[in-house]
Records
---
Amino acid sequence: MFCRTQTTRATIARGSALEMEIRRGKFRRSVFLDTLQDSDIQKKIDHEIRMRDGACKLLAACSQRDQALEAAKSLLTCNTRIMAYMSELQRMKEAQVMQRVARRSDGTRSSDAGPMDDRLPCKGKVAISDLRIPLMWKDTEYFKNKGELHRCAVFCLLQVGGEIHDTDMVMVDRTLTDICFDNTIVFSEASPGFELRVELYSCCSEEDYSAGSAPRKLASKLSSSLGRSAGKKLRVAMDPGACSPTSNAGAATLLLPGPAVAGPKYHLLAHTSLSLSHVQDSFRTHDLSISGNEECSYWVPLYGSVCCRLAAQPHCMTQQMMSGCLKVKQLGGDPQSWTNVYGVLKGTNLFCYHRQEDMEANVEPAFTIAINKETRIRASEKDPHSKAQSICISNQYGGEEVTHTLSADSREETHRWMEAFWQQFCDMSQWKQCCDDLMKIELPSPRKPALVTSKQGSLYHEIVIDTSDDISTVTDILTQRMQELELRSQLGTSPPWMSLFEESPGGPPTPRLARHIPRSPHRLPHSPLSSLRCPWPGLLSSDASLTSDSDSPCSTSPCSRLRGWAEPLSLSSPRFRPRTLSLDAKLSTLRGRGYGGVLQCSCQPPSSSSLAPIPAECVPQATLSCSSSTSSNSSSEGSHSPSSLDGTPFSRPSSARRSLRNLRAKLDPRNWLQSQV
Amino acid sequence: MVCAVILLLNFGYQTMEMPFCILKGSSVHDVGDSALHFTFYQRIEICKLRQGEHLILGFSIGGGIDQDPGQNPFSEDKSDKGIYVTRVTPGGPAEVAGLMMGDKVMQVNGWDMTMVTHDQARKRLTKKNEDIVRLLVTRKSLEQAVRHSMM
């Protein structure tokens, strides 16, 4: 009962009861063998059903719109897969039945293998990547600023035979000019006559999905829920065609259609079919057939084409089709000059290595014979000099014809090599342009971090503030001077113009400021200033927080406290106007850098208050809170960030440290800002 | 197959939700292998503390779609432009409510925080007329904690 030539490799144990039954003729072995293929599909169907149940439950449970959309997408994919498997199962059952009928009629077992000269081309990998679908918004829509953005969720479903894959979901609104899918999808076993069906599904993302929607709307949603093509398939699958086995048919009626769930429903928006003629190693544009019109909720104005890169790698180009020991002689050479080589037929070449080990060691082959469309191969009659048949391979190398003669060890070997060459030619004629050169297919790594395109940010955010203008040089000079002065002022002197940067203590705080700034030291509950070796003149100014408009000096009582042990810290007015880069703005920021209550030198751990007493050491790092710089209207905001340092000592640069770099850092969108709330 | 697990516990007057997980479908690249990922969320309710004129929450945030995500020390995916908690004031309202450093803030009082600028995020947290903010956060360690508790 063991039969090695059976491709399904099903074996029935000797001496088992089943074997006895078969011997007695009660069952045909084919009944059991064929069901094994069925069971593969059955397993796949079961898996997809479980996935579908999971997706349905998720859809019912989730509250977020984008989760619901993702779940609906999974549901659609599962349904499509289930139907594809079901129809495949159906076909197989029908084929079995036809076979049984044929057997019964002639009473003989049909041969398992087809006729020998029916050569099947090899299969290959087909990959589609960089899908891009251009959109065509009307002018009026594109520039419409009022009203909410009409958004749709779209994704693509790709199908080759029984393999179905979906891309990631993309949200489309009128700010998008193209729908781009970054996924690379690879179908591993495709025949040269494959048909890659690309379907674009979309779903409006603003509908109310509650169950209480109008019955008519619900009914229309449910009826179109599976999409047109899917619905057609459904009807076909449900059709009780030629006898289908009872169990599966029963299961089919239970499975389809799937449970109706309230939630977003995707509709087929466009589709197209790609085949071998569309395969190319570069991007190509194909036409899309669009279903639906402007009245549909799921409508997205498509330009009508899709760009993508469709590549194919037939197995004959990537795998070794044949290998073995050969003797090669170049025609016209010495009749005795046979070279022993180890030949490997792969792609469009026959690589000849000196030894088999060379090939495994990836050493360069001794020479290579091209086997391509222009090659002519013929088996020659018995060579009078040697007894075996030989194979002649002729190629045209630039106008010159070069012929190699191959000879194998035995007739069977020669025969096998000829078979291999024939198969190669068959493959090349079927796969056509794919066999000219190997097309690259890049497999996506499993966790590739998605390249975030800054679709959300505006161009404004991309602009780095150019600081190489005159103002900065002036202020740079001034800050340098200030730094010098710090050191000098530690000795007690300070030039007269330093007062420009110094707020006179006791300057009258404006009433506005008084409202916002809690001046009493009790604001610093646990942060005894004594613990802070690095003084924070900006502390109080931080209370002024984000009000960029408040440009009055802050209370200075703590300042005076600080003053005691940090002379150089001269100021601390929250004067702060980062809105413009005018000179006075910069100077005023230099004067009183209000840190807006939130400063954090993230590079230095909070506990490192043990900064050098000389503030000169403390170089402000990039991350400063800059809420004020990005929002000049923050003054209207309710509770300003309060600032209080809550006892965690930060390292803060001293006021004198406030070089222009701080401002640059604040305004430079490349920094990673932090705000305290 | 487990889909959504939401555990709600009532502790006295305060309703605290245990971290729950949501199944998220993902697109399939490998043949035959569809993975549904678990994302763990926790709801955190912070009562603002009044300090004079200000209402403070007691933590700092970083991130935003206008910020450079590569500098975020807390994110796993360095292209994640979400809002992360960069510091929690010890003893402050956020710490009391259970917020931790490194948490990613997904929602604040129902407002999405995954696609906001830094300033928008700050504003949503510091609205003067709100005394309580309810955050939806996620953190890596949650996943491990729930896995451990499920074992």
Note: Residues 1-19, 21-38 of chain B have pLDDT under 50 and may be disordered.
---
Amino acid sequence: MNHVFQKLQASLTRQVFLMNQTLPLFRNTPSIQLPVWSSATSSERRYHSMPTHGIGSWKYLLSKKRTQKKKKDRHQMKQIVMATDSTYGTLNVKVSGYDMTLVERYTQYVHHLCNRLRINVSLCYALPTKTTEVMLMQEHGTKMFVDAVLKTHERVVQLNSLSTTVCPVFMDVLLKHQPEGVQLSVHEHTEADFKSRFKARPELQELMSHMNQ
Amino acid sequence: MAAPCAGMAGRPLGKFLSCFRRTVAVRTGLRQFSASSMCRATTATERATSPWNLMAAVCLQRLPVISAESSPLEQRFRHMIQQMELEKSLLSDHELRLLEDAERMSRKQSDDYDSDEEDGGRDQDIVLAQDLDDSWEQKLKNFQPAPRVSADVDKDLSSVQRCLADSLVLLAEQQVGSGKLWLLPQAPWQEGETLRQTAERALASLPAAGFNATFLSNAPCGVYKYKLPKAARTDSSEGTKVFFFKAVLSDIAPTTAINAPFMWLQKSELQRYLKPAYMMKVERFILDL
């Protein structure tokens, strides 16, 4: 046990001796900067110079705008682009039909075609589903009974500044690929279109009317 | 279940008319019998007189009414996918009701049936789900869909109803120079109108036509240049330039004459009726999808 202790002591002293020898070397070379107050101890964390410094950080990847966005800004309308001589303004391509898979696939096709033709797509959203009940008169009697329930699905792809040279080609391809049972309509985007996406709030309207009276 | 495109209304025409007027002024050509000097006197700016006659033609297309036939590979794939979806799917409400009713019937038929022990306390339905099913089957049998392909209509080249699965182009037989030729309906350009209006006039002036078309754009989609043979060339007319405009047929008035000189052709059949140089320029913008 004693000789182990002695060996330990010897190794420790040897280490200290080495350190004392090498330290003056370090001090002379200007490339490695040591803070003056850290003398012999190597227990100081020099993390800025570690090669793995900053390995787990991700905050720098986020854009600063996200943190500053307020909740109110999310429902602002995007600016409606005006039509110029060589481009159309903001256009809404509305795809509607009874079969949801067909409607959604056709909307995807329209979107991919726009990406391919480098047409600027600003938004792609869905309007609420409208349910239509088809009622038939009963043969013997005056009561109507429900025959079928049809749901109309609508999807809108909003395009910004469609150039007039691309437009006929784009429309031709769209029309030729239109599936059966799907209606396509292209019209300009207005404020009323944007407002129609929101639900009406009758209590708020009542309160406003009371205030204005 | 045809799906025609709803109108593309609401485009301010005025702006585009002004755009087009500028471009037309650049390539203006004076017609043979309008005196060039008189024109120069009336317009303030000097217009470059070019020796070409301008014409506008309309490429009227009838879109496919039904979807195209699927190839054998597509049919097999569709069959396989349908089978997979059927195997993965869950029972719907109606199917559950059918099973419940069948089970209840079988329980009723057994001797030791007590209606008080009926589960759920539901009233006995007057109309069983099976009856609904039967009535729906009956309705389906009564429905006769129209045939997809009818061979005799397909052979009639002047009928609009031929080849419902393909898109067709209208050809009219028109007097050009000395003889009659089959080509896209065209009309000569007149002063003071845009080329698109000329194309609309070309469509409207077809004998006994009554076609209602939607023009796709104010800009032409193709051009064909025809130089007159050397003998007929004069100083003021070297040839004709024809600008093509695309339009889509929306509907036809029912009063079409039987002997009207029209043909509705697919792109593959166009080659037999058009001149080769003309065909080369025209086939570039006709999409055969």
Note: Residues 72-88 of chain B form the longest helix (17 residues).
---
Amino acid sequence: MGIRFILMVNKQGQTRLAQYYEYLTLEERRALEGEIVRKCLARTEQQCSFVEHRNYKIVYRRYASLFFLVGVDNDENELAILEFIHLLVETMDRHFGNVCELDIMFHLEKAHFMLEEMVMNGCIIETNKSNILAPIQLMDKAT
Amino acid sequence: MATTASSFMDSLFQRTLDDLIKGLRHNLIGEQLFISKSLEDIRKEIKSTDLQTKSIALEKLTYLSSIHGIDMSWAAFHAVEIMSSSRFSHKKIGYLAASLSFNESTEVLLLITNQLRKDLSSTNEFEVNLALECLSVIATIDLARDLTPELFTLLSSSKVYVRKKAIAVIFKVFEKYQDSVGVCFKRLVENLEGSDGKSMSAAVGVFCELAAKDPRAYLPLAPEFYRILVDCRNNWVLIKVLKIFASLAPLEPRLAKRIVEPICELMRKTGAKSLLFECIRTVVTSLGEYESAVRLAVSKTREFLSDDDSNLKYLGLQALTIMGPKHLWAILENKEVVIKSLSDTDSNVKLAALRLVMTMVSEDNVIEICRVLLNYSLKSDPEFCNEILSSILFTCSRNFYEIIVDFDWYVSLLGEMSRIPNCQKGEEIESQLIDICLRVEDARPELVRVGRDLVIDPALLGNPFLHGILSAAAWVSGEYVEFAKSPFELLEALLQPRTNLLPSSVRSVYIQSSFKVLVFCLHSYLLNNEAHIPSSSPEKLASGVPDTVLGDGFLEASVITAPKSIVESEHDADFSPGASNHGVSVENDGEDVIHGQTSLSVPLEKDYFTRESIIKLLDMSEMALGPLLESHEVEIQERSRNVIGLIELIKQEITGPLVKKETDDMRDEFKALNMIRLICDGFSEELGPVPVTAQERVPVPEGLTLVENLCDLDTIFADMNLLTQSSLILGTLNLGETTGGSLSDLQTKDDLEPATESTSLLSEHRKRHGLYYLPSEKSNSLYNAYPPANDSLLQQNENDHVDDLVKLTEQSLVPKKKPSHAKPRPVVVKLDEGDVPITSRKLESEENLLSGAVRDALLGNEDKSTSAKVPCGKSSSKRIEKGKQSVDVPSESNDNAADKGKADVGKGSSRRSKGRGKERKHKSGVKGGTQREGNGQRENLKSSRTSKHKTHHGAVDSVNVIPQTPVIPDFLL
């Protein structure tokens, strides 16, 4: 499976985007998000970006007020996931121009599409920013 | 007309998603209220016939569901409707809603098969994309089966955009519907071989997941992976390929040999830390025998460790942890960093360092390391402190305390841990104390000493985390009171007023222990008298000698307990009847205890168990326990009643008027002695660990039908109201909690005691409903219901004893060269069955369905392609022959194959015998043929080396990598 879920959470702990690659009920999701927020948001910048949680790892990174948290299997490469997060942020940056929390809130659908271009069934399938954004730009033109 | 008008109004005044989000942000009326208002609107709008209105409603609902956790399962049908819209902007909203909210139990899934099929075959690649994305999330068995043909087509689509996504989805489909493997596997492999980087990368991702589950099935593809490893420049792909090799390499030594160099090359050259780390991980997990590679990996790891970035440091520690057991030198080289990391600011780094330290622990350094760690635990925050404690506890108890030689040390370490202020590991320490007590006879004196120290400290009683430990300590010191230096002091500790802070379950253990101590004191006292009144018998004198020992301890103790009595007994020798003998060696000391201890019946302390002190003892117990007779807790009430009952009986016997004739006195004491002796015998039965499987050894009596469903238990509990509320529940629950040992034993004791009303009721109940006790309790049912089984078990224990000792010394002495210990390691009683959890042997042999399917697919492909490519050349036809041979080989030589499915008998087992190495193969019947074959291919290997990597075609590499394996299917050639 590789990636199990991707969360974007602001520093107040509010979820801004949640994409799960395995099915969890709403209650399970809420519980999971709560636990993760409690575990990760309290950590300082100097502390490492990997947190063990239940039977998997969370790799996270903070950009301004937004935390990007990715839950992965234990044998996943942590540094690669960090790079993935960075790539995601750069891609969003390119599309929205200096992306911020509000962009993601108001364009949740687009954020999901970007993720869909990058990750499928928990596997990273596209890492080229232009390729990721091409379909979205097409759609934008069409409407 | 009215409806169309209203829907028009709806769409005119409908809030868009943006409006919704803005409303949420401004939050004028409170979030919850706003959401529920919006939901009302959405419910109305979503019923609209206008697709635009409907899809906006769904869009809003999807937003609320994914961000605010609002249930949207009720809108599933609407989502399906919108999915089927012909307009892309609607369709995508429908698909997003479906993939975010549908799951296997969503009923409308049955309706979307056709829609998905239609979109999967659409000419618009973005529509295909939507369907694929949705399928990757919601695929069910049915969907996977029905849509396999469409996916098969997409796997060779000319549009890369679609193809790579189809590849990613196929893994999900494989998981759900194994038969799809037969159809699609070949195309998946083609994508791996293909020149297109995107599809290849997606395919590698899929194989990485597949290989993690059952690597063996993918060995034949090793040449392809090797090609990618050497040629590919994309770090994402390389990381995945390395993961695949990490699982393949251990299966095939020649493959390992082949990939070492390229991986080292990557390690040296790459600038990407992620790739570097993956290389390190691959080397240390799967290529451990290649010294130079490991050295390189370790030096790279050192760079990680010395980096300021805490991420790298953490990963460096992780890498060392993986190396740990095999390459201790690597850890030792970095010892300093590791120990420093224990006090890092980041708790995760600390934790990683702790784990690493624990992997270093061995028999020789366990004392030293535990000392260091314990010091750290005192300094660190509560959370980490407990992490340290639990890892010490875990490591030391692993495999029956394998690494512990000096149990006295370990037991006192446990005592020390209990006193650490932040200690919350009471439960674990409790069970280990009891476990060691039962298993390691030689540790008991020290255990009793540690137990005494714990029980006697009034400060510990206030800490609820320690109650478990105290319960164990009380039990130990009661059960093995004969090792106690001062039973008096112990009794006083057990009855101290602060015990009212204990929960009732623990308190009843205290009371029971004090009962044992009391009985022990009385027994010693009375026996003493008996021994010395007819004082001429020299034998008894002799047997009395070693036990004077306890004198020292008692001296200290009696200063606290009964200072008066000691003074009296010292000076006023005549007071005690036993004192006439006090010439007998008081000089003996401590060491003798160990010899004298084993039999309880040996008299103890003549000079100190005086009538005066015994009476004091009785008074004290009576005072402490008296109030408990009114306790509402049945366990406490009952047990204290037992003690008080005994005290009353004994008091009549020994006290009486002080000015009594000696002869009368003696006769009375004789009576008392007999009584006490009976009780004492009850207590002196040896306790041992009981295997989990013990229950199974009890033959089911004829005519007894075991009920599988225990639901009628409720009615039984209902009609035994009184009992259930108190003793029964207490009894059973506690037994479960305290890991067998402590309370169950007490329970046994209870049965042996002069039964009070409730105990007899309890045993009555047990007799009637004994069978209900079987499943939940591991050990105690034995004691209670089936004494014969217990007996036979004990005997067997004794027999095992010697064997175990032999085994144990073999195990612990042979593999490690260790300095000769001053003390030999004491025996640790192990039970052959039951104690050891059943190993996962079964699981191993059980084949994963998916990989079975893959194997079939590979086999099928091989057949197909060989039939197509037979005229390809000598070597390939030879190989086919050889493949056939090896199919025959295992059926003769390999009995493991017996239980495997027909289809993969040949494949799987030949591979298995392969993995075991060459010797095996030479022994087997087809020796000549295979050897010749092997030689031929080795030549082949040499010649092909000269033209290394010139072609991208699989053939050369496949020969290079695993020249001898018949396993490589010919379609790779």
Note: The helical segments of chain A are 26-41, 78-96, 101-106, 108-118, 129-142.
---
Amino acid sequence: GLFVWRLRSAGVRQVPCQFVHLCRIANDRLITFQYFNFLKRMYVTQYNKDLSQRAKPKPDSVVSPFHELQQLDQEKKAVHKISPVSAVHQSWCETSGRNELREMKSAAGTEDSVTAVRAESKEDRQWKEMKLRLDDLPGILARLSKIKLTALVVSTASAGFAMAPVPFELTCFLLASLGTGLASCAANSINQFFEVPFDSNMNRTKNRPLVRGQISPLLAVCFAAACGVPGVALLTLGVNPLTGALGAFNIFLYTCCYTPLKRISIANTWVGAVVGAIPPVMGWTAATGSLDAGALLLGGILYSWQFPHFNALSWGLREDYSRGGYCMMSVTHPGLCRRVALRHCLALIGLSALAPVLGITTWTFPLISLPINLYISYLGFRFYRDADRSSSRKLFFCSLWHLPLLLLVMFTCKKSVLEKEDKGDLLGESRERAMEIRLP
Amino acid sequence: PPAHSHSDWIGPPDRHSHLRPVIFHVPPGESALERRLREARQEAQACNQRFWARHNRAFRQEKEEFIYSRLKAKGLEMRDESGQKATLNAEEMADFYKDFLSKNFKKHLQYNRDWYKRNFTITFLMGQVALVRALRWLRGKKKNVEQ
């Protein structure tokens, strides 16, 4: 009963969004991308809720934790996860419902059927025993490893794998996906391990397991090792050493470069963009075993995409970044923030045009993707010119559907592997004949 | 937390620092290593609490002052007709955020270094304690088997 009520209360703002995305789902042909869009829908609606809450006028008085508006994770690189859909859906419903309730209470201050909210916040105000309960452990570990973000990372790696011009091998694909997923879990856990006091001070992140004391730091580190070591080993031994090296490097880049750099210099955004760009490269190298131009192009597309996505997002979080001591462009160099976002929107057009030149896709790809790239560039321009919350929100939400759509179009315009194989065969045959002639 | 409890207890977030305080359980047969761990955690907790409470308070105060000065420059009062507190929009506040961040940059650097050191030390001690406890448990099992 309570669960249903939570859904209903959360549903009001989200129904139109869900409907739009349901329609989009109905139009998708591929199953993998259906999952993609389903998860994106969940992601979008959660962000919609978060951002729509931010739109309320901020009370200027002394802020109690319950009054602070929800923040968005600066690390979330959009797109979603491929874990067991039902589990994710459940946890999403619960958390979004709970968060929605908390927000409603603080913002409205009214007592409209707030019994559930009261129970929830009362629970939060109680003292809790710091004892690990085994049945809570899966949920705790899921939140520790940022499982939704991990799913997103795995799906971009799968996109890289799918775009590689080689025949599809299921075992390789599964091993690569699993290895990437484990590596991502490890990296996210270490990130949370490093950021406990900062996460406590930001509203979005204050319910993380380490912040709440649901798990000890030692266990978090052990979990990270238990995911990272097998993950990288799986990639190195089960797929190929290059993919393994990229995975290990990405973990290092995220935990030891990006995380500390967030508090030191705005360069963290560029490092973070590289972190986001590596998974599709890993997917490609997993399939082909080498770092071709195609891999770099795919990485380049994701790298460029990070900027409009993150810069638009960070525009609404300036207060929390400032208070938390995070060095972000939106706070320190706002002009640069908007310029970079626009620059990279335009770069996406260029990169899409490069795809057929490198033989990854046919020429239909830049043609079909031109409207969506132009649209995001238009929003990027609006953001650059207006520099306000509404333009940043529009750009952010556009980036959420832009990437899956772009990857989907790319996949459908992929140059057929068979074409290449036929040409290869012909060459092979003629070479054989030439050899036969040469033999005495 | 109840007196008979054998574990640590964690409380709701503090109003100023937003950190959750922990009450540490002191077991009767606490070893030197375990005491070191507990003291390290208590110290880190106190240090964090001091830093964030002071920092957040400063933020709130400076924000108020900034809003007041800006409103005055615009010729407006702190409270408008309906008695609501007047606020500045995000773009106007941006100058304050940028200023605040750069003013506190060195403070944050120092705190980061301190926090990372403490975090590693505590986790390492936790590892040592866990290892010692595991060995003790194994030795106990071996004794039982022998008996």
Note: The mean pLDDT of chain B is 87.
